[in-house]
Records
---
Amino acid sequence: MLLDDAVRAVPLVERERGPIVDVGSGGGTPGIPLAASFPAREVTLLEAERRKCAFLERWTAELPNLRVVWGRAEEQPLEQFGVAVAKALAHPPTAAEWCLPLVRVGGAAVLWVGPSAEVDSVAAVAVRLAGSVEAAADGLVVIRKTGPTPPGFPRRVGMARKRPLA
Ligand SMILES: C[S@@+](CC[C@H](N)C(=O)[O-])C[C@H]1O[C@@H](n2cnc3c(N)ncnc32)[C@H](O)[C@@H]1O
């Protein structure tokens, strides 16, 4: 079931170029299934909790294209990835704010927003971060990064949750 949920994004990720980051990977979903689906692409599992990173590290022996980074999305170097994916990371507007700075101009963020898709609030956040909602279907939203990350982003740790942009 979890695997099915992750695999739903495969056609969307396939269309994008460049390395993939799974933001807030937790137990490894969707990053590990994506790494198995795209063996020629580097997949980074970015996770804020060290204990979870230790678990995720075990998978790197089986999947050579996988790497694990312990850290918070707001504290990473900007625009390193072609595509950022995030499932159950945070309230969707917050997830969008955390993911878009990680993506190169022309790349995309793919968010699992669930059935009660909050597409309007995600779209409002995307505009603030030089992004634009391109598609929303089946509980997934694709946000295109249309320009460089605007000055002032990412906001300092805690702000996206404390004062959501939308
Ligand atoms: C509810 S879990 C979801 C895990 C997995 N994506 C899934 O769908 O099962 C959210 C994860 O995001 C991590 N997380 C929360 N805020 C984060 C941030 N700012 N940067 C990186 N990871 C974060 C948490 O530590 C947690 O492991």
Note: The longest strand covers residues 103-112.
---
Amino acid sequence: MGLRTVGDGALAKPLIEEVESYWDRRPCNIRHSPLPRGTLAWSQQITARKNFVEPHIVAFADFARWKDKRVLEIGCGIGTDTMRFLRAGAAVDAVELSSESMNAAHERVGLEFPNERPSLRLFHANAEEWLPEGPYDLVYSFGVLHHTPHPERALRLAHERLKTEGELRIMLYATWALKNFLRQQPEAQGGCPLAKRYTAREARKLLAGCGFRAISIHKAHIFPYRVKDYVEYRYVKQWPFRIMPQPMFAWLESALGNHLLIVGRKA
Ligand SMILES: C[S@@+](CC[C@H](N)C(=O)[O-])C[C@H]1O[C@@H](n2cnc3c(N)ncnc32)[C@H](O)[C@@H]1O
């Protein structure tokens, strides 16, 4: 497993610096476990909680499908999905803007793969400016490109790195989302400097401008829990989700979920 810093130092643009320092201060999902950092149980609990709160990721990423394939992950955060690709047998290159997040990812991989040399390279870089050489079978980016000032730059680079028959799988925040109507923070942890939202039409346009065509766009994910309990690791559903039958909740997620799940190919 490699751990590298790359790029030409051009991270010195104010907005991208703000984005970087925000995720440095609070790496995504780092509080998913109250256990002592640096333990295997801590790392595993982070994955378990993510799986519990965002169960749709497993079907969307379709980890098992990428066995023996090359995956590029843009914005790997603290490495939860990265490790799921590794476990499925993929060779993963992951790029992350926040060094604190990347260090946590590195630490977790060390804890979870102690006696193995997983096929992973972690790069500290701004994906708008630099991505490792491909070619890749999959470019995956979950909840990242709406946080970067110029997502089209990262997508154009991704297009160059993807095999002709490769796939792009990205999650962007949805405009037509219950969470947006309720005017809640798009990030559970407030103060995020940049969190854009996209309609399906805007997402198609974004992809088309970067040489991709969207082959499917679905919505998922409504967060049903009371935040004041959730931060204490209790899962108490808030009204009306408490009384909502599961099929109705599933329908509501597909209509007004916060996550736009996009699969694309080269146009
Ligand atoms: C909401 S977190 C998602 C992390 C991870 N994909 C996950 O699902 O747990 C967004 C991540 O994107 C990273 N990020 C934002 N802009 C980036 C860029 N231009 N290049 C690389 N990473 C970026 C942030 O540092 C942060 O770790």
Note: The two ends are 33 Å apart (CA to CA).
